[in-house]
User: Which sequence fits this backbone?
């Protein structure tokens, strides 16, 4: 029986290896500077050099805006629930955050379509709002966890010196948690950077030119991969693999960075507790 | 510990009393409004989805759930086939993933040498970080043809008398979607069960070993029963993920909406993939509203899944607290 457990672990690692290897093998041959700097060409005849520059720029704008929306909001929610709320309110609101986290991203997409796209048309703002909705419970939960780790002796010491509650919270407690909040945020960014479904109805009818303006629909990397993967043309598949490789590399780097941040901040919190 | 907790509560409580500092009140009100807005957001999501589905709800009512035709030309819509395919793909994925996930959890918590645990845990978590669209791309181009050429015919030859394993056709079918979903929920279930197994008290394990149990008997008699409730919750969360996954499913399931078939090697369509593939192309108000209805079914399902998982976790942790 123990052999089966070994086998199960080997299968999981094997699947990961096969997926990463297929993406790396097929993506690397197509990966060049053109992918990042050139824009796609519709109805390309012959060997036209094209890339996905519009998608990379669009993804940067969408994810950046989503982070700007979800981060302050998520931190405030966590501060209220950990520092101010009664236990019953905290439990209830945590459950609501879990429910929000469990809502399928395609439902979020259809919700944002009904809220922002009907009557106004698609836009990068609608897309980033959808991504922010996915990100919010992740950031709030991560912040709640680190806030709970801050020792109460720190709060009490500050209060005993006559420092008001709001300055204790913002000046003493929150600075202790910056590392943990950054870890949570970075992991959330890694998660939403690969999300396709929320952008499907909110920011998908984009042109082929590079746009920085979020009031217009923006192309994004995951959506490009989705659209190219449905195409019958082999050259489109090749670009889908290359884009997938870039996306995967980004997510792996970001996850590694988060891991490093997590160990660092844990060490720091450990010192503060002593 | 208890006195420490008591003082802890006083440093983290609502701002009340006769002498309230304006700054304290301001921070509490602003942060409280943010928390209220989060609850409002969930309510707004529910409202908007119901609102969008209203036309379809009033036209078809609950018959929508049992009728199977999806006919935009004649304006007749029903979700029965998508419900069936969703149930088949997600439960199938759960059946494929759970034993594997439990094995991984056990390996990483009990069996593996310490130097193996860290890297393998990190690798399994990396599997969870791969975007669904990339798994879907791999599913279309690598996995689908592989299953079509080697696995589907073999299963049909060996188990063809079961209606589930009928004649094989193309690479994009319900079975491929099932395997892709199993890969996606594997890391969820395995990382939760690893933590559950690690949480089994050492005294219980040592007592079993001290009574002469082998390591496998200890796992079967102590570790599995102790973690049972938590594993159930992990499976339910995995199921929720599989049901709601739209993109990877849409890429590999073959987009076939002409009726449910028990044959796993036929193409199909789940609730989520139907929305993903048809929403932008929908023309009539009734079709758009019917797609909102599909989203409403998904929303209700995700709500039930979460509440049930939470309820199990609370019940289990209370029972273990009493021990």
Assistant:
């Amino acid at each position: 029986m123990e052999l089966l457990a070994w086998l199960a672990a080997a299968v999981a690692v094997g699947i990961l290896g096969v997926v990463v290897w297929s993406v790396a093998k097929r993506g690397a041959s197509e990966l060049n500077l053109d992918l990042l700097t050139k824009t796609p060409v519709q109805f390309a005849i012959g060997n036209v050099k094209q890339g996905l520059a519009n998608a990379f720029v669009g993804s940067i704008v969408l994810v950046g805006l989503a982070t700007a929306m979800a981060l302050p909001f998520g931190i405030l929610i966590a501060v209220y629930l950990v520092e101010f709320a009664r236990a019953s309110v905290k439990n209830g609101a945590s459950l609501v955050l879990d429910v929000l986290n469990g809502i399928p991203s395609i439902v979020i997409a259809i919700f944002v379509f009904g809220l922002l796209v009907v009557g106004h048309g698609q836009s990068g703002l609608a897309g980033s709002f959808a991504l922010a909705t996915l990100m919010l419970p992740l950031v709030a939960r991560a912040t709640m966890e680190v806030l709970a780790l801050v020792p109460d002796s720190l709060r009490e010491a500050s209060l005993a010196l006559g420092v008001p509650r709001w300055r204790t919270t913002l000046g003493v407690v929150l600075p202790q948690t910056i590392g943990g909040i950054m870890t949570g945020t970075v992991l959330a960014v890694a998660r939403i950077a690969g999300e396709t479904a929320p952008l499907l109805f909110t920011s998908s009818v984009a042109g082929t030119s590079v746009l920085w303006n979020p009031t217009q629909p923006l192309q994004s990397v995951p959506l490009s991969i989705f659209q190219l993967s449905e195409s019958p043309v082999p050259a489109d598949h090749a670009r889908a693999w290359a884009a997938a490789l870039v996306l995967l590399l980004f997510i792996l780097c970001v996850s590694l960075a988060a891991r490093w941040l997590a160990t660092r901040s844990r060490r720091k919190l450990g010192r503060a507790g002593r | 510990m208890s006195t420490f907790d008591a003082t802890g509560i006083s440093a983290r409580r609502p701002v009340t009393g006769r002498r309230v500092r304006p700054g304290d009140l301001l921070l509490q009100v602003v942060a409280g409004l943010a928390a209220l807005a989060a609850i409002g957001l969930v309510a707004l999501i529910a409202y908007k989805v119901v609102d969008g589905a209203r036309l379809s709800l009033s036209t078809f009512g609950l018959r929508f759930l049992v009728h199977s035709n999806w006919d935009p030309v004649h304006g007749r819509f029903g979700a029965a086939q998508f419900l069936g395919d969703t149930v088949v793909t997600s439960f199938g994925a759960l059946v494929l993933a759970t034993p594997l996930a439990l094995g991984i959890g056990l390996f990483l918590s009990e069996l593996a040498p310490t130097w193996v645990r860290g890297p393998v845990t990190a690798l399994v978590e990396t599997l969870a970080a791969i975007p669904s669209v990339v798994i879907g791309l791999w599913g279309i181009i690598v996995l689908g043809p592989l299953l079509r050429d080697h696995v589907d015919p073999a299963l049909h030859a060996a188990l063809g008398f079961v209606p589930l394993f009928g004649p094989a056709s193309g690479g994009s079918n319900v079975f491929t979607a099932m395997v892709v979903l199993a890969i996606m929920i594997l890391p969820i279930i395995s990382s939760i069960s690893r933590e559950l197994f690690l949480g089994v008290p050492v005294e219980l394990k040592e007592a079993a070993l001290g009574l002469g149990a082998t390591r496998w008997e200890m796992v079967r008699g102590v570790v599995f029963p102790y973690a049972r409730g938590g594993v159930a919750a992990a499976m339910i969360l995995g199921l929720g993920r599989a049901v709601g996954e739209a993109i990877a499913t849409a890429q590999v399931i073959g987009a076939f909406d002409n009726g449910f078939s028990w044959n796993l090697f036929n193409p199909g369509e789940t609730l989520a993939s139907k929305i993903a593939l048809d929403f932008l192309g929908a023309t009539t108000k009734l079709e758009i509203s019917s797609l909102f209805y599909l989203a409403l079914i998904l929303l209700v399902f995700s709500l039930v899944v979460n509440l049930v998982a939470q309820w199990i976790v609370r019940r289990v942790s209370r029972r273990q607290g009493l021990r």
User: Anything to note?
Assistant: Confidence is low (pLDDT under 50) at residues 1-9 of chain B.
